[in-house]
Amino acid sequence: MSSRERILGRVRRALADVEQDDRPYEQAFARDYLREHGDLDVEQRVDLLAENLADYRAIVHRCTAADLAATIAGMLAARGSRTVLGPPGLDPEWLSAAEAERLADRAESTPYELDRVDSVVTACAVAVAETGTIVLDGSPDQGRRRITLVPDHHVVVVRVPEQVVSSVPQALERLDPARPLTWISGPSATSDIELDRVEGVHGPRTLEVVLVTA
Length: 214
Description:
Protein name: Lactate utilization protein B/C
Oligomer: single chain
Pfam families: LUD_dom (PF02589)
CATH class: Alpha Beta
InterPro entries: FTHF_cligase-like_sf, LUD_dom, NagB/RpiA_transferase-like
CATH architecture: 3-Layer(aba) Sandwich
Domain LUD: 49-212
Strand order of the largest sheet: 1-12-7-4-2-3
Order of helices and strands: HHHEHEEHEEEEEHEEEE
């Protein structure tokens, strides 16, 4: 008998006297928790998102759709980015004013090649105001997870107000759990036992979020 068979056998014996619950998953658990804290209007929701993003040390920009290309170009220029990578479904107008060389997202790119990319620009699936969280779901305008984890600078565009929700439960209703979800709350960071913060450990060292209105 293998170790796997022994472990599964113990689990079966432990569950032998547990009553079978055939209720659908949606009915198995009470979901009477708060869906959001307070009743925020659109402006308050967006302001809360910007505040929490900044609290996580993300850099927040606001602009209109007409100014988006210029805003992104200015951000890349200020950082001195010579190359910028965008996923294949990204609106080409967003990078139309950028002077940096546009790189394609290639499946054969190695981590070392991606590490040499100066900046990455993507859209997002949804943004959560209460937690300051940006969620990517691997859609064509967001690309594969690794292009937003390996390069050191990530620019995320959030469409206001349609992509901004108040709470995590509201965000989950918009997301497909079968997709590769990436939840981002500020730039990647960790702290050691002395609470010395180090950024860029598990993802981009710098996160810039553009809140763009129509």
